[in-house]
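for the writeup, i need someone to sanity check this before i put it in the appendix. the sequnce is what the collaborator sent (i think, or maybe the updated version? ugh). structure was predicted straight from it, no edits. if anything looks off just tell me and ill rerun, i have time this weekend
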Amino acid sequence: MIVEARVVGRPRDIEDRSVGIEPGDHPLRAVIEALVAEELDAFAERQREQSLLRILTPADLARGVDSGRYSSEPRAAQAAPPLSVAVARAVEAFEDGLYFVFVDDQQVESLAATVTVGPQTRLRVVRLVALAGG
């Protein structure tokens, strides 16, 4: 399955990425749970990478002179929520209409709806942003 995420109102290129969900028919809720689990794993990996001591290169030092910021010390890791909490938040956000899900250009409007997943299935998550003053 190929997943892309877009935020309406924010022009930003987001690369497509493959997600390892077993081919076949799944309820949308199960697909969202799998996506959340992969995102939590990716978050944990980013936290591990940030905790590593890095050596500054001459280019890093030059950028530091321009920006006034040098960073080589590891950052404190942030705690990710438990999977059950993260899934509950994602489900609630879907039910509240904070994001839409499209599978192969067809909007899926129910968590119980069946989604057919294959290697070339394209899942698009569109997060909505509230307009100021609206």
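Residues 2-51+74-127 form one domain. The chain has three helices and seven strands.
thx in advance!!
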